[in-house]
Design goal:
mainly alpha; Growth Hormone, Chain: A
Length: about 160
């Protein structure tokens, strides 16, 4: 039996494809965003500050995001997180394009908001998997999802 056999479950396949597309976008965003911070500020310390703002939400909101995933509709949480991320990035892109300068606080807050949305998305995705596959295949589904989650950033870095 192949690892990809788990994709025969339609719900899991849809979740996995969504995860794949979303994570490729996240990977591209991360690299491009950090280069943008460096280009706009010319300051390595600012790149580090924005990187810290990107990490902080996982520490602050990780535990409570799991509670949200248990309490509310997981599909809706994932959908809203991805829509909000896309909308936020498009808005930032328009602002950067139209404004003569981009303040560092805007870049840092963008990193914080994007990671907060991701911190909410991830537990909802993980908690949704058991409802999409039979119990006997849960280990395979979780492994496949985790492998994708770990491999896509590497591929995304290559694409950027």
């Amino acid at each position: 039996m192949l690892a990809t056999d788990i994709l025969r479950h339609r719900g899991f396949k849809n979740l996995w494809l969504g995860q794949l597309i979303s994570q490729i976008g996240d990977s591209l965003y991360f690299v491009v965003f950090m280069f943008m911070v460096k280009k706009i500020t010319g300051n390595d310390a600012m790149v580090g500050l924005v990187g810290a703002c990107e990490t902080l939400p996982y520490v602050l909101f990780g535990p409570s995001a799991g509670v949200l995933a248990d309490k509310f509709d997981r599909k809706r949480i994932m959908w809203l997180s991805d829509i909000a991320s896309g909308t936020f990035l498009l808005s930032l892109g328009a602002l950067v394009f139209l404004a003569p300068t981009t303040p560092v606080w805007l870049l840092a807050s963008t990193a914080f908001v994007m990671s907060t949305l991701r911190a909410v998305f991830l537990p909802a995705k993980s908690a949704a998997i058991p409802a999409l596959v039979p119990a006997a295949e849960l280990l395979k589904a979780n492994s496949f999802s985790t492998a994708t989650q770990n491999m896509v950033p590497i591929i995304g870095l290559g694409l950027s």
